[in-house]
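Example record

One chain of 68 residues, shown exactly as stored in the release files.
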Amino acid sequence: EPLPPGRRDNLWQPVPGDPGAHGRFDAEAREDSLQYRLTTQRGAVLAGLAAVAALAWALAPRRGLRRS
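Predicted structure tokens for this chain:
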């Protein structure tokens, strides 16, 4: 994508003003992400997975444990 004519750059000195953290991808940006939630809530995620695993183990049919 070509740059607009007369655009200032910061090669030799800072550009005046604060441009912020915005750009052409603002429309695609999201406030939250699944990866962020899983990373920041790691303890709760691991506890939930452990609970699901324990429930699956408890409900699994037992074969071969008893002899007739």
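Notes: The chain is about 35% helix and 0% strand.
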